């Protein structure tokens, strides 16, 4: 192996994170884009768009506060039209317990807030509180569904790594069929967009499972951080991904490119970087119980006590 070939087979170093001001500027710009897309594409009342943003911010604030409490580094917030928002960060210590608390810190306070608003509606019969409570409850229950990258999907994955390979495709198929049926009978074609997103996610999930299966056959461990990958492991994972991902087919499987970032981004999606298992079986059962309760109780309460209003009736 010559010197030049060795250079082109070295794992690229990760670039430094942008300055704090740049992070918050990107968050602000993504928020403006988020509001603009909903306003100009769907002509929604700006009041309801801003309320949706508030609901999302309260959800993400839970993740943000938990990450700051556990001393995560480079914590940042981004808004994504149609998908909501996400908070990301790097923990100093990778702990299973900390990850699960951080995941639950988003949806659980949002569901509690929604139920309190529903109680307020029951006392004063102001329809606004009913609508706002639904926004909180629906968004946060949706985030508890066992599908990555939702909080529920990451929760199941952290409790039992590898389980989502089976759970997620089945759940995505059932969800897609159910939503498509709802779209047809209600003539709500916005739901078709959600079905398309589900189909796209299913295809990506299947492709990712194929990549992981290929790596298992090659006895390459992907349960580690990018920093801990050897050059040889990086090149093997890189080759497997390029052979499976159509958007990366133009990359040379044997040489690191000058524009390697798209490949590195996908490698980060594959790496699991398993957390330290610091939870007992009793703790895991308790987490599953809490997860199930926070999905079931709001559904039962609304089924028994919600009025016969249209759920998505937002006045202009």
Please list the strands of the largest sheet in the order they lie side by side: 1-2
* SSE topology string: HHHEEHHHHHHHHH
Overall number of strands: 2
Which stretches are poorly predicted, pLDDT < 50 over at least 5 residues? 1-7, 310-316
**Main beta sheet:** 2 strands, antiparallel
Which structural class fits the helix and strand makeup?
mainly alpha
Backbone CA Rg: 22 Å
Helix percentage: 55-70%
Distance, first to last CA? 69 Å
Shape: globular
- Total number of helices: 12
Report the sheet-strand fraction: under 5%
Question: Could you tell me the mean pLDDT?
Answer: 78
Plain-language structure description:
It is a single chain. The protein has a domain at 16-145 and 280-316. It contains twelve helices and two strands. It starts with a helix and ends in an 11-residue tail after the last helix. It has 316 residues and is mainly alpha-helical. Helix content is 65%, strand content 5%. Mean pLDDT is 78; it is low at 1-7 and 310-316.
List keywords for this structure.
globular; 2 strands; two-stranded antiparallel sheet; disordered C terminus; mainly alpha; disordered N terminus; 316 residues
List the SSEs and their pairings.
Blueprint: H1 3-7, H2 20-42, H3 46-69, E1 73-80, E2 84-90, H4 96-104, H5 107-124, H6 127-143, H7 151-159, H8 164-186, H9 190-217, H10 231-244, H11 261-270, H12 281-305
Antiparallel strand pairs: 1-2
Helix pairs in contact: 2-3, 3-4, 3-5, 3-6, 4-7, 5-6, 8-9, 9-10, 10-11
């Amino acid at each position: 192996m010559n010197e030049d070939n060795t250079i082109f087979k070295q794992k690229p170093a990760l670039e430094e994170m942008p300055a704090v001001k740049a992070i918050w500027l990107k968050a602000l710009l993504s928020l403006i884009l988020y509001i603009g897309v909903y306003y100009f594409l769907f002509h929604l009342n700006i009041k309801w768009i801003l309320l949706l943003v508030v609901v999302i911010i309260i959800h993400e604030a839970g993740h943000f506060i938990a990450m700051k409490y556990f001393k995560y580094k480079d914590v940042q917030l981004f808004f994504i039209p149609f998908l909501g928002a996400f908070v990301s960060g790097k923990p100093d210590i990778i702990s299973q317990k900390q990850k699960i608390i951080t995941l639950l810190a988003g949806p659980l306070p949002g569901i509690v807030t929604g139920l309190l608003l529903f109680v307020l509606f029951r006392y004063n019969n102001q329809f606004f509180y009913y609508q706002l409570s639904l926004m909180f409850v629906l968004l946060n229950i949706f985030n508890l569904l066992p599908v990555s990258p939702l909080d529920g999907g990451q929760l199941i994955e952290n409790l039992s790594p590898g389980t989502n390979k089976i759970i997620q495709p089945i759940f995505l198929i059932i969800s897609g069929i159910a939503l498509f049926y709802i779209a047809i009978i209600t003539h709500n074609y916005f739901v078709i967009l959600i079905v398309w997103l589900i189909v796209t996610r299913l295809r990506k999930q299947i492709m990712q499972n194929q990549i992981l299966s290929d790596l298992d056959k090659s006895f390459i461990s992907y349960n580690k951080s990018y920093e801990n990958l050897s050059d040889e492991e990086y090149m093997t994972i890189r080759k497997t991904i390029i052979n499976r991902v159509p958007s990366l087919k133009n990359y040379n499987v044997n040489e690191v490119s000058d524009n390697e970032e798209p490949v590195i981004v996908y490698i980060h999606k594959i790496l699991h970087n398993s957390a330290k298992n610091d939870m007992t079986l009793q703790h895991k059962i308790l987490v599953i119980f809490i997860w199930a309760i926070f999905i079931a109780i709001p559904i039962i309460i609304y089924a028994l006590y919600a009025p016969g209003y249209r759920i998505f009736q937002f006045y202009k």
